[in-house]
Amino acid sequence: MRLAVLALAGGLVAAMASPAAAEPKAQPDPTREGPMVHLFQWPWESVGTECRDFLGPNGYAGVQVSPPQEHVVLDDQGHPWYQDYQPVSYQLETRRGSAEQFAAMVSSCNAAGVNVYVDAVVNHMTGSGSVDSGPGSAGSEFSKYDYPGIFADADFSECRRDIENYDDQWEVRNCELVGLADLKTGSDKVRSTQLDYLNRLVGMGVAGFRVDGAKHMPPEDIGALVNGLVEVPGTGQKPYVFQEVIGDSTTSPTEYVGNGDVTEFTYHHEVSNAFANGAVSGLNTLADSMSVGSEQAVVFVDNHDTQRSSPTLTYKDGARHDLANAFAVAYGYGTPKVMSSYTFDDPDSSPPADDGGMTAPVDCDGAGWVCEHRNRTIAGTVGLANAAGGAEVNNWWDNGRDQIAFGRGEAAFAAFNAGEGEMAGDFASSLPAGTYCDVMSGALVDGSCTGGTVEVAQDGTVSTTIPATSGIALHTGAKLS
């Protein structure tokens, strides 16, 4: 969801009505809402190609990309994924590509109608485990607390030790997260340096930011950065911002909503556990247990951290993971974010790479990359979410445990069978009568369905049989008659 995102509606309608409407968009649209995908650790050229070939055509509204700033190079540790989260400078040279390749990627995604959201690492610089690892990915020499031309010792918090007590909010916000040099984010110098970096990205067409480790910074420090962001060129809008806030007894996501949206980790726990255990009937009251309202929540089944630290559901769980993601996209609470992974056994492992640690081009049909966002069960529901828009859930049905069905206004209907037996019956919907493509199994292409079809009766009844650990999704944008 968005804060203050309606200003361009009239202009967009006019553009859609003009002969140029079929031309690719050359700029981002920070007003656009809808599901996004996290292409974790993807190189820039592959992201640009995916925006053009799959994300745009399938209706994804945005893509979260990995941090684009210079990072440490941990050769002796096999280039683990987390080296990207240890900034050395704000040069745009990483294992995923050059500044020129990053700019080309942003341009390609914008032309495809897909917003680019950068993972912004602004809480810290490098860590204790990378003291002797220089130079960085752009060739910069550094040492912990000393980054020539950028930050010196005085720019870091006085607490030079790891956070020991997570019940102490001062420690959480001022001491070091796993040995990472904690910046004085209240300092004018630190803020101005980081704003130069963030605004340079906005000038290149980046539509927004995910603020990494937001709970480790005071809300007002993030607010100062948000307030200092320039408008996205050609849009009249500030960038969209969502913050990583893992709520606990010390920190509430509600403290940060004044700056933008927040990640709702409670949603991850409830939805992941429900589909892992097959106990999905209670999800009809999902919103009641969330800490923030739907309009300011970014939700997910798994992300790059939970895959490794609390893997309730990941790509390794197959159909249950896919079904949970389809639910998250279809249900309409918050802004859903789909994780797109690479395979791993060691949680620290690098993405597919060459001998020098440079990330390999993505091949969704080959080994190494998972590309969950392309799975038909998930990708099909993106169209449903877009067709439903802001319509609320209606016609909820459940069997008391492992089977559910619901509609989204008069535009969409979905049913999920998280059990081990068939789900068969007549289910109420508000859909117009007709024949619909089941978009979890196929798409509407040239007037016919590439997957299954479902009939909706004159009174909106959906009569269907759904196999175990499966579902159906119908919407008016994939109606045959």
Your description of this structure?
Residues 1-22 form the signal peptide. It catalyses: Endohydrolysis of (1->4)-alpha-D-glucosidic linkages in polysaccharides containing three or more (1->4)-alpha-linked D-glucose units. It comes from Allosaccharopolyspora coralli. Its cofactor is Ca(2+). This is Alpha-amylase. With 481 residues, the chain is an alpha/beta fold. The protein has two domains: 9-388, TIM Barrel (Alpha-Beta Barrel), CATH 3.20.20.80; 393-478, Golgi alpha-mannosidase II (Immunoglobulin-like). It contains ten helices and 20 strands. The strands form six sheets. It has an eight-stranded parallel β-barrel with strand order 1-2-3-6-7-8-9-10, surrounded by five helices. Strands 11-12-13-20 form a four-stranded antiparallel beta sheet, covered by helices on one side. Helix 5 packs across helix 6. The longest helix has 16 residues, at 188-203.
First-residue to last-residue Cα separation: 32 Å
H and E order? HEHEHEEHEHEHEEHEHHEHEEEEEEEEEE
CATH homologous superfamily (4th level) name of the largest domain: Glycosidases
Gyration radius over CA = 23 Å
Biggest sheet strand order reads: 1-2-3-6-7-8-9-10
Number of helices: 10
- Cα shape: globular
Summarize the structure in short.
The chain is of the alpha/beta class.
Protein topology:
Elements lengths: L8 H9 L18 E4 L4 H12 L6 E4 L33 H13 L3 E6 L3 E4 L41 H6 L5 E3 L5 H16 L4 E4 L7 H10 L11 E4 L17 E3 L1 H13 L19 E3 L6 H4 L9 H13 L3 E6 L35 H13 L4 E6 L4 E6 L3 E6 L5 E5 L6 E4 L6 E2 L2 E2 L3 E4 L5 E5 L3 E6 L6
Parallel strand pairs: 1-2, 1-10, 2-3, 3-6, 6-7, 7-8, 8-9, 9-10
Antiparallel strand pairs: 4-5, 11-12, 12-13, 13-20, 14-19, 15-18, 16-17
Cofactor: Ca(2+)
Keywords: Calcium, Carbohydrate metabolism, Glycosidase, Hydrolase, Metal-binding, Signal
Protein name: Alpha-amylase
